[in-house]
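Entry for pyridoxal-5'-phosphate complex. Fields follow.
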Amino acid sequence: MAASISFTRGVPSADLLPAEDIRASAAEALERDAAGALSYSPGGYLPLREWIGERHGVPASRVLMVNGSLQGLAFLADHFFHDRPGTIVLEDPTYDRTLTTFRHAGAEVRAVPLREDGVDAELFGAALAERPTVAYLIPTYQNPSGVCMSLETRRRVAALAREHGVLVIEDDPYGLLRFEGERLPTLHELDPENVIHSSSFTKTIAPGVRTGYLVLPEPLVAPFARISANTYIAPNSLAEATLAAYCWGGRFEPNVERATAELKRRRDAMERALVDHFPDGSTWTTPRGGYFFWVQLPEGMDAGAALADATEAGVPYVAGSDFTGSEYGRRCLRLAFSAVPAEQIGEGIERLGGVLAASHRTAAV
Ligand SMILES: Cc1ncc(COP(=O)(O)O)c(C=O)c1O
């Protein structure tokens, strides 16, 4: 059987991980501040919080470090929904783990359709008018769709949230991985007091460092300090001290540049292959950054039904229904190009195109 070429995981491939620089940064961190790196650091290792605070224009006290941004999302779910019924407004489709995390916390989910320029602002406004607890958006190179919210929509969304008095959680792990187009302001930059910004070093350095962070509005600093202390006393100081040495040592920007250039090659290879090998009538929005293509297959095709055959053929993906409860999700699939070397993408997509066509023929019989 041909080797597996998996499009499932939104992770960087091994060749994108900066192992040598991490090794050097860990050694530096221990030489410079072994006591700090090996002690509890409530709220996170201060030099790293300072580096992040500077980039976001806030004092370090407003930066809460977490062990991966998903833990920050779990803290948010706990804060907003523990013992309190309420609704979260989010995009349709959206990141599947967020859906799970907030549903487990007891939140009612209200999904607003995503358009080519971001969440549908009109419907978003209507959803906010119904007094939800909080909103959750991934404005830049969204997971799963790859969509980047336009500047106009960002402004409208930020203004609507303020008008209705609803806090927005902005999940932004992909924003720095920009292939083309102008840099757009984050929602947090547009309204720092009404937006909670969540990000992590998973996509810009490595998932294994398990280091993410929340930039909090001032009133949330104390409650979140309590949640984090009650969960783990303090996050992983050694990883954060290593990243502090890495970032203050000038290694961050060059790594983002290197990763982005390689990801762009993979994006280009995937788009060429989709044009050549996917069923006629398939549609997608070309991602201008990030990790994903979100492909809608022609009417009558079923991405969920074809998944077992694709997995058998060594070219798995994630079925669209994981990211949306809407009917159209059956026709959609998420393809991550981040984990597959550009040279293998064409072969993988050609194989997958064949599987999808064959599965459709079988279903039609
Ligand atoms: C939109 C989004 N948020 C959060 C995460 C979680 O990242 P981590 O916990 O590794 O920081 C991911 C990971 O794929 C993601 O795509």
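NOTE: The radius of gyration is 21 Å.
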